[in-house]
Amino acid sequence: MTAPTRTPPRRAREIALNLGAALGLLCLLAASASLFLGITPLVFRSGSMAPTIPTGALGLATSVPAVELEPGDIVSVDDATGDRITHRAIDVEPLADGSAAVRMRGDANDAPDRAPYVVSEADRVFFHVDHLGYAVAWLSTPVAIFLGGMLAGGAAVIAFGRTRNTQEGDPADADSPALTGAGDNRFARDEDGIGRG
């Protein structure tokens, strides 16, 4: 007796379920890290921190009080216009109210930023991965969101949609008995589908 083999629809359903579960787990881990550990993902869109962190890198940062910042830290703050600036701290001056004036400069820049940033807390980069920021940036575009929705819908249809075990018009299935007795086929179907005894 041979072991049963999985049909292609069943394999596709299992792959879709496993892929969906893996992606769901990654999303859950990312959301948990952001919520409980205060980790913020940062996409480096310019080369001002090259070669340490090149354009297109994905950085991970955690929020710390400004008084904990030290020269040499890679720090991300909002400037006066609300733009996110991620450069290296070159000087940190604590202020009386617990905030700090942080002077920063990009590694690729010849001069420091125009003015210090006065902040009570800031995001300090502790890890980065080159090129991964391109993928994260693309995933936030409308096209990627649309394709993600289509993929999720397709996976749901494959995973939970009704599958057919037989093909239409298969003569073997049309002639197969619906019910059979223990030894004498007492309940075999006749041509019009009504059992006879």
Automatic annotation (TrEMBL):
GO BP of this protein: signal peptide processing
InterPro entries associated with the record: Peptidase_S26 (IPR019533)
Start-end of Basic and acidic residues biased regions: 186-197
Entry's transmembrane regions: 21-44, 135-160
Any GO MF annotation of the entry: serine-type endopeptidase activity
Region of interest (Disordered), ranges: 166-197
Highest rank taxon of the organism: Bacteria
Key words of the record: Membrane, Transmembrane, Transmembrane helix
Name of the featured protein: S26 family signal peptidase
Organism whose genome encodes this protein: Dietzia lutea
